[in-house]
Design goal:
Elements (H helix, E strand, L loop, with lengths): L6 H15 L5 E8 L4 E8 L7 E3 L3 H9 L3 E3 L17 E9 L2 E10 L7 H17 L1
Antiparallel strand pairs: 1-2, 1-6, 2-3, 4-5, 5-6
Bound molecules: methionine sulfoxide.
The site of methionine sulfoxide (SME) has 15 residues, from strand 1, helix 2 and strand 6.
Length: 137
């Protein structure tokens, strides 16, 4: 039953729901922080497998969000210097931090194959998703 689902199974279900219901969400995954090692670790995700399962704080869009504690919306990944490419099909990215007890503990990361698809509505929606996620962690 649902009550026996692990946290990772729940997070994977969220990835599946988002990827399948929003046509411009093409890769959806979670990264979680180790604040001592200053690294992010890939959690559950849906989409193409990525080599970037460990990301140092500060590196790439994800690593920058680990430090800034703020949403990062990238309308055109080609215009970013500090960007880690996972797939040549990706045109845009959004990363929204997850806070637990006021601490930035991870993030949701979404890649899009559509140029400049993310709006304020995506930010507000993903902030809501991240709030709900932090409640199951
Ligand atoms: N593009 C990200 C790396 C993670 S992949 O999108 C799955 C970044 O620049 O941090």
């Amino acid at each position: 039953s649902d009550t026996t689902k692990s946290v990772d199974e729940r997070l994977l279900s969220i990835c599946q729901l988002l990827e399948s219901h929003l046509e411009y969400y093409n890769w959806v995954g979670f990264y979680f922080a180790n604040s001592d090692k200053k690294e992010l670790y890939l959690g559950p995700y849906i989409g193409e497998p990525t080599d970037h399962t460990v990301i140092p704080f500060g590196k790439g869009i994800c690593g920058q969000v680990a430090v800034s504690n703020e949403n990062f919306v990238v309308p055109d990944v080609a215009a970013q210097d500090n960007y880690i490419a996972c797939s040549i099909t990706v045109k845009a990215e959004i990363v929204v931090p997850i806070f637990k007890d006021g601490k930035n503990i991870g993030q949701i990361d979404i890649d899009s194959n559509t140029p400049d698809p993310f709006t304020d509505k995506d930010e507000r929606f993903l902030e809501f998703v991240c709030t709900k996620v932090s409640e199951i962690l």
